[in-house]
Structures are given as structure tokens and as C-alpha cells.
Amino acid sequence: xxxxxxxxxxxxxxxxxxxxxxxxxxxxxxxxxxxxxxxxxxxxxxxxxxxxxxxxxxxxxxxxxxxxxxxxxxxxxxxxxxxxxxxxxxxxxxxxxxxxxx
Length: 102
Fold this sequence. Notes:
This protein is of the alpha+beta class. It has a single domain (about 1-90), classed as Alpha-Beta Plaits, CATH 3.30.70. The chain is about 30% helix and about 35% strand. It is built from 4 helices and 4 strands, in the order βαββαααβ. The chain has helices spanning about 15-25, 60-65, 70-75, 80-85; strands at about 1-10, 35-40, 50-55, 85-95.
């Protein structure tokens, strides 16, 4: 299992807009090999911090998606003003763990 976490910082008061954009996303990622799921998390302590957490079968599947035209399409659909209000603070991953039970 490979987990990617995009730690995003959004202008104050615009996190609801960002969450809505994720809810209305194109959904192209679901058709990619190895995709498991995608969640958007918002901190209750800092509403300007939003995490996009995606799970993949392995890191190679994640990399393939990141290089795909579908990934570009998903970003290009976002309102340009909203896109400028969002900053990627850090891209993190968990890739040294194996799921042992669910």
C-alpha cells in the first residue's frame, strides 16, 4: 500500500470552496490502475490546512497517474482563482508499511 498526502494551505475563508471543488471533481483517477481511494481532510484547529489523502496499490501506480493526462485534466478543471489561492506546502507519502488487516 502506498499513501500520498498533499498538505495544502488555502486562503482564509476559502476552504469550503476547495472542498466543494474536490467533491465535484472529474473522477478520472478512479479508472487508474492501482487506485484505492481518495479523501479530503480539513483540520478542526486550522481550517486553512487541507489534506488530500490518496491510497494506491503501490508507488509505481501513483507515479503513473501523476504523469497521466487525466491528472492534468483534473487540475485544469479547477477555477484559476481558486487554484491561485491554494499552495502545496508539502507532498508526503507512507510507503514502508504493508496492510496486515482491515
